[in-house]
Design brief:
2 copies of one chain form a homodimer. By secondary structure, chain A is of the alpha+beta class. The first copy, chain A, has a 3-stranded antiparallel sheet with strand order 1-3-2. Chain A folds into 2 domains: 68 residues, Arc Repressor Mutant, subunit A; 39 residues. The termini of chain A are far apart. At the A-B interface, α1, α2 and α5 of A face α1, α2 and α5 of B.
Chain lengths: 113, 113
Amino acid sequence: MAYLDRVFHCLSDGTRRAVIAQLASGPASVGELARRHHMALPSFMKHIRVLEESEVVISRKTGRVRMCQLRPDALTAAQGWLERERRVWETRLDQLDSFIETLSEKENARGNR
Amino acid sequence: MAYLDRVFHCLSDGTRRAVIAQLASGPASVGELARRHHMALPSFMKHIRVLEESEVVISRKTGRVRMCQLRPDALTAAQGWLERERRVWETRLDQLDSFIETLSEKENARGNR
């Protein structure tokens, strides 16, 4: 799976998005995250694995506690892709607007002749 | 599946992202899109269905041709979510920076005493 495929797949689940939102305000342990989501640890660990495989989250075990944090630039590529496409799309709509404007000006000019 | 789940799932596939990129520069028929991706029509139609179910693309049949176009605001919610989280994350990093700066200033002041 390509990098962007993995990142967007990772974002396609509400629990994983909530974990990202929580980690955006600071690192947390897997236990803390699981409690917040009222989820049994084994099911929750599956989400953590997806978050790690998509390179959005890094975790590290210190003693008996596994700490998670967002990777710097975790969301940059996904955001960049969306911004680029939206720019293309908006440029096209602007061109369409000015085309329609030109058409109606020509129409008016013809009507005034 | 929640709306954002569906949008991000839709974005998690390279073919679907390429279709979105193509439609950002203007509407196209399903046939044109399938040819561009060298894909058999039935497999390609599965992607079109996902794009429609996630409310990213609208298609309409005119005679024998099915035309596709991006929905206005197709990507707004996904982009909005990413921007919001990134802002939280960057604010946190800025706060961390100024905290470290304050710490090292205190450290220097102590060294100079």
